[in-house]
Design brief:
The complex is a heterodimer of chains A (369) and B (283). Chain A is α/β, with parallel strands linked by helices and 369 residues long. In chain A, 30% of the residues lie in helices and 23% in strands. Chain A contains ten helices and 18 strands. Chain A has a seven-stranded parallel beta sheet with strand order 7-11-6-1-4-5-12, with helices on both faces. Chain B has two domains: 226 residues, HUPs (Rossmann fold); 40 residues, no CATH class. Helices cover 31% and strands 27% of the residues of chain B. A nine-stranded mixed beta sheet of chain B has the order 11-10-9-12-8-1-6-7-13, with helices on both faces. In chain B, strands 2-5 form a two-stranded antiparallel ribbon. Classes of the chains: A alpha/beta (369), B alpha/beta (283). Chains A and B meet through helix 1, helix 4, helix 5, strand 7 and strand 10 of A and strand 3, helix 3, helix 4, strand 9 and strand 10 of B. The complex binds flavin-adenine dinucleotide.
C-alpha cells in the first residue's frame, strides 16, 4: 500500500500536479457530503461527528451539507435522515433499496458511485470504519479520484480546496494532502477523532430520494447470516470518561496489572500503546492511537508512554492528559497538561491507594466510620 | 488454483527515527520487512493451495531491493515471485499503486494462468490506508471481501468462496464467486516457518522482474506521481501545546506524590472531582 513519501518528493514533473488547474467538467461539483453509516437501524456515531465537521467546511465554502443515507426501506433510514438534520445536514439523499439491507460492497459502491455522478459533490467524507474503508476505496477507484485515509484535521484553504491532514509514516510528523484536480475530494476519518456536535432538536431539512439502479439478481455476493457482537465482549474504551493506559515503560506484562488496578479503582477503562499489543500484553481492541482506538475522555492517564505522534493523535481530544514518565523530555510532555516525572511501577500502586482513599465511597465510609 | 498475493516491503517501523532538524525520515540503516498484515493473507493463500492444489504467486511493486521481501515469501513456501519495478512508479499514491498492481496481475494471468483468488494485506504499517486492496479489486472488476476473519469453504469446482467477515457490530457470513479479492484480518493465523526445502529453493529462485512496459503498461502517465490525484503539500511536526505539562514536584514519597498529583489535576479541572466520585462508586 503505497502512501506518499514522507517528504514531498522534489522530482521534476511533480510541479504541475502541485498547482490547482481544475478541469472544466469538475467545476459543477459543489456541496459537502457525509455518508450516514446506517446498518440494522443503528447509525454509527462517527457519522454525526463527520456532520459536525462537514458543517464547518460547508459554511466556509458557502455550500450545503448533505447526508447520504442508504439502506432497505423501513430499516431505520427515515429515522437516520431525521437525526442527520438534527446534527447539521441541510438535505439528505435517501437511497433505499432491498439490496442495501446489509452492507455488501457491490450494491453499496454502485449506488454511491451513481449518486456522486448524478449530484456531484465537491467533498465526500466517510467514517474510517470497516464499512467506510471498504466502500471509500472502491468508490474512489471507480471515480478515479483522490482519497485520504484517517484524517485528523480537515480544513478549507484559501483557494477553496480541501486540506486533509493525517499522521505520516513512522515518525513524529503530520502531512497535509490535497486532491487538487479531481472531484470529489474524498477523505475518511476515524471514530472519535472529531468532536460530537451539539444535537439541535427540531432542526429539519429536505429529503431527496435517489432510486439506485440495482437488482438482487445482478449481485453475486450473498449474505448467508449475520451474527451480532455480544455487547458484553465489547469494551467501551472509545467512549469512556476516564482512561488509564500503559506503555513500554512498564517493562513487563505483570507490571501492566498496575494499570488495570488503577483503572478498576477509578471505574475507568484501560488501554495501552501499540508495542504492548505486539508483545501480547493487551488485546488489540485495547490499543490507543492512530491504528487503534481514538479516545476523548475527560481524564487520560498515560504511564510509561513516550507520546509518539501515532499515539498522540488518538488522545489529543482528551480534556486532560496526565503523564507519568521517568523522562522529563519525553514527547508526551509537549501535549500532556499535568505530569509527574517518576517511576510508574513504584508510583501506580500509591496512586491507586490515594484514589481509593479519596474517591471510592466504600473506603471513605470505612475511614469515616 | 492459482492464487496471487500482493505484498509490500516496508521499513521496520519500530526502528524509524525522524531527523530532529529537517523533519525527514531517517531511513538509513532501518531494516526492511514484509508488511506484517500481508503475512496473514499469505498464510491463508498457502493453506488453500496445500488443501486444494495449485500455485501461489507473490507480487510486489517497489524498488529493486524489494526482491528481498519476495524471497522471504518464497521461503515460507510461495511458488513464484514477481517484482514490478520502474522509476515511473516513484511517488505513487494508492490510486496509482492499484493501477500498476492491477496491470501486473493481468500480466501474471496471461503468463502463468488466470488467478482464482487475489489476496492483499488489510493495510500496511507505513501508509496505513487500507485502500489498495479495494482499489485493485475495482480495477480488475473482482468481487471484494475485506476484513475476513475466516475462510469457511472454497470450492474450486463450483467456483464459490464462503467467508466470515468482520463487519461493524457483528460477523457476516458471505458467499461469493471466484475470482475475487480477499484481505485477511490480523491475528487470524500465524505464518508458517517454511521447510528447509523451501529455503533452499528460495535462495536459488529467480525472481520475475518486470518494468512498467514488461507488465503491459502503455500509459505511464497513470503511474507514479503523475498518476496520483493526491498531492502532499506539507509535512510538518505537530505543534506543542503553548505551555508544557505542569510538572508536579516529586518528594520521593510515593503516597505524598500521589496526593499532590490528584490535587494538581483537580486544581486544573475542578469538575473532575464529581466525575471521579461518581465513577469510582460505579454509578
Ligand atoms: C504506522 C504506525 C502506526 C502506529 N500506530 C500506533 C498506535 O495506534 N498507537 C501507539 O501507541 N503507537 C503506534 N505506533 C507506534 C509509535 O510510533 C510508538 O512506537 C509507540 O507508541 C511507542 O510506545 P511506548 O510509548 O509504549 O514505548 P516507548 O516509545 O518505548 O516509550 C516508553 C516510555 O516509557 C518511559 N519509561 C521508561 N521507564 C519508565 C518507568 N519506570 N516509569 C515511567 N516511565 C518510564 C520512557 O521514558 C518512554 O517515554 C505506530 C507506529 C507506526 C509506524
Amino acid at each position: 500500500m503505497s502512501d506518499k513519501p514522507a517528504a514531498p518528493a522534489p522530482a521534476a514533473g511533480s510541479r504541475a500536479s502541485m498547482k490547482k488547474e481544475l478541469p472544466e467538467h469538475f467545476k459543477a461539483y459543489k456541496h459537502v457530503w457525509v455518508l450516514v453509516e446506517q446498518e440494522r437501524g443503528q447509525v454509527h456515531p462517527v457519522s454525526w461527528e463527520l456532520l459536525g465537521e462537514g458543517r464547518k467546511l460547508a459554511d466556509q465554502l458557502g455550500v450545503e451539507l448533505a447526508g447520504v443515507v442508504m439502506g432497505a426501506a423501513g430499516t431505520g433510514t427515515l429515522e437516520a435522515a431525521a437525526e442527520a438534520f438534527a446534527y447539521g445536514a441541510d438535505l439528505v439523499y435517501l437511497v433505499e433499496h432491498e439490496t442495501l439491507r446489509d452492507y455488501r460492497n457491490e450494491p453499496y459502491s454502485k449506488a454511491m458511485t451513481d449518486l456522486v455522478n448524478a449530484h456531484k459533490p465537491e467533498i465526500l467524507l466517510l467514517g474510517a470504519t470497516t464499512l467506510g474503508r471498504d466502500l471509500a476505496g472502491s468508490v474512489a477507484t471507480t471515480l478515479l479520484t483522490g482519497l485520504t485515509a484517517d484524517c485528523t484535521e480537515l480544513a478549507v484553504d484559501a483557494d477553496k480546496s480541501l486540506a486533509a491532514t493525517r499522521p505520516t509514516f513512522g515518525g513524529s510528523l503530520l502531512c497535509t494532502i490535497y486532491t487538487l484536480n479531481f472531484r470529489p475530494q474524498m477523505a475518511t476519518v476515524r471514530p472519535r477523532v472529531m468532536k460530537m456536535p451539539e444535537r439541535q432538536e427540531g432542526r429539519t431539512g429536505r429529503v431527496v430520494p435517489f432510486a439506485p439502479d440495482l437488482s438482487e439478481a445482478d449481485i453475486v455476493t450473498k449474505l448467508l447470516s449475520f451474527l451480532p457482537d455480544r455487547t458484553s465482549t465489547k469494551n467501551n474504551l472509545a467512549y469512556a470518561d476516564v482512561v488509564v493506559a500503559g506503555g513500554l515503560g512498564l517493562q513487563s506484562a505483570e507490571n501492566f496489572q498496575l494499570v488495570r488496578r488503577l483503572a478498576a479503582t477509578l471505574g475507568a477503562e484501560f488501554g495501552g500503546s501499540r508495542p504492548l499489543v505486539q508483545k501480547g500484553w493487551i488485546p488489540s481492541d485495547r490499543q490507543i492511537g492512530q491504528t487503534g482506538k481514538t479516545i476523548r475522555p475527560k481524564l487520560y492517564i498515560a504511564a510509561g508512554i513516550s507520546g509518539a505522534i501515532q499515539h498522540r493523535v488518538g488522545v489529543d481530544g482528551a480534556d486532560m492528559i496526565v503523564a507519568i514518565n521517568t523522562d522529563p523530555n519525553a514527547p508526551i510532555m509537549d501535549f500532556a497538561h499535568v505530569a509527574i516525572v517518576t517511576d510508574a511501577v513504584r508510583f501506580l500502586p500509591a496512586l491507586t491507594d490515594a484514589v481509593a482513599r479519596r474517591f471510592s465511597p466504600h473506603t471513605r465510609d470505612r475511614i469515616a466510620g | 488454483m492459482h492464487i496471487v498475493v500482493c505484498i509490500k516491503q516496508v521499513p521496520d517501523s519500530a526502528q524509524i527515527r525522524v531527523h530532529p532538524v529537517t523533519n525527514t525520515i531517517m531511513r538509513q540503516g532501518v531494516p526492511s520487512i514484509v508488511n506484517p498484515y500481508d503475512l496473514f493473507s499469505l498464510e491463508e493463500a498457502l493453506r488453500l493451495r496445500d488443501e486444494l492444489g495449485g500455485t501461489v504467486t507473490v507480487l510486489t511493486m517497489g524498488p529493486p531491493t524489494a526482491s528481498e521481501s519476495l524471497r522471504k515469501c518464497l521461503t515460507y513456501g510461495s511458488d513464484r515471485a514477481v517484482l514490478l519495478t520502474d522509476r515511473f512508479f516513484a511517488g505513487s499514491d494508492t490510486l496509482a499503486t492499484s493501477f500498476a498492481l492491477a496491470q501486473a496481475i493481468r500480466k501474471i494471468g496471461e503468463t502463468f494462468g488466470a488467478p482464482d483468488i487475489v489476496f492483499a494485506g488489510k493495510q500496511t504499517i507505513d501508509g496505513d490506508t487500507a485502500q489498495v486492496g479495494p482499489g485493485v479489486a475495482k480495477r480488475l472488476d473482482l468481487l471484494q471481501l475485506t476484513y475476513i476473519q475466516k475462510i469457511v469453504a472454497c470450492d474450486p469446482e463450483a467456483r464459490t468462496l464462503t467467508v466470515e467477515r468482520r463487519a461493524e457490530g457483528g460477523t457476516q457470513t458471505l458467499v461469493t464467486r471466484l475470482p475475487c479479492l480477499v484481505t485477511m484480518l490480523e491475528g487470524v493465523n500465524q505464518v508458517r516457518r517454511g521447510s528447509i526445502h523451501d529455503a533452499l529453493r528460495a535462495a536459488r529462485a529467480e525472481i520475475v522482474t518486470w518494468s512498467a512496459k514488461d507488465a503491459g503498461i502503455e500509459d505511464v502517465t497513470k503511474c507514479g506521481l503523475r498518476g496520483s490525484p493526491t498531492v502532499v503539500k506539507r509535512v510538518f511536526a505537530p505543534a506543542p501545546r503553548s505551555e508544557k505539562a505542569a510538572a508536579v514536584p516529586v518528594s520521593g514519597k510515593a503516597a505524598a506524590d500521589a496526593d499532590a498529583l490528584i490535587d494538581a489535576i483537580l486544581a486544573r479541572q475542578p469538575s473532575l472531582e464529581a466525575d471521579l466520585t461518581h465513577l469510582a462508586a460505579g454509578i
